[in-house]
Amino acid sequence: MRHRTKPAFVLVQTSYPQHGMGLALVPTTAPHRLVRCADAQRLRPRFREDFQTMRHAMHARMSPHRWVMLLLLLSIPFSPFTRKSAAADGETLFRQQCGTCHSLKKDDGPRAGPPLYGVIGRKVGTAEGFDYSDALRGAGFTWDAGHLEHWLSNSNQFVPGSYMNYRQDDDSVRKNIVQFLETNAKR
User: Fold this and answer.
1) Which of 56, 149, 161, 165 is most buried when burial is the number of CB atoms within 10 A of its CB?
2) Are residues 118 and 44 both part of a single domain?
3) 109-168 pLDDT tens trace
4) What's the number of domains the chain is made of?
């Protein structure tokens, strides 16, 4: 009776002086049986050859239709149906990234940063009660989505000499925060 010669993994008891006793999975085409340490040493040089055989066997078993199906499944975004709206994401991101230093309420005074109520359409450096840097007071532009996004990407590069030291490299985070401010920080 012939033994099966399909590639498989066998459990090997190993005993190396530097590592002690252990178990290892070794690919082999040997008949299914418990492999002693001495046998494992003999099989070790064939490890790469057996692995290649197993890999080729796996490729041979998958039909082209299954490969196409696998590629299609892997190309689908992981959670398209559980994604929140950008505004909801923006609110969460605003709280996480900006909420410690800034407020959106009209009646709140300045924290570490000025309140952002009415920031869209407001001239830069003019929120009441906040001590702006000379660089920001003299910048001379009005806040809009483009300026906010540029500001969030690297505030010190956008207006050198400003007090705020913030940099957000992720485009989607910046866009969601700016979109949230556009809808919730109007006068």
Assistant:
1) 149
2) no
3) 777 888 888 888 999 988 888 888 898 889 989 999 999 999 898 888 888 888 888 888
4) 2
In degrees and rounded to multiples of 5, residue 21 shows phi and psi of -75, 150
DSSP labels, 60-82 = HHS-HHHHHHHHHHHHS-S-SSS
What number of other Cβ atoms are within 10 A of residue 103's Cβ?
A: 17
Place of tokens 């407020």: 103
Note whether residue 81 is domain-resident.
no
* Torsion angles phi and psi, residue 22, rounded to 5: -170, 175
Quote the CA–CA distance of 99 and 113 in Å, as a whole number: 10
103 domain residue, yes or no = yes
pTM of the model: 0.52
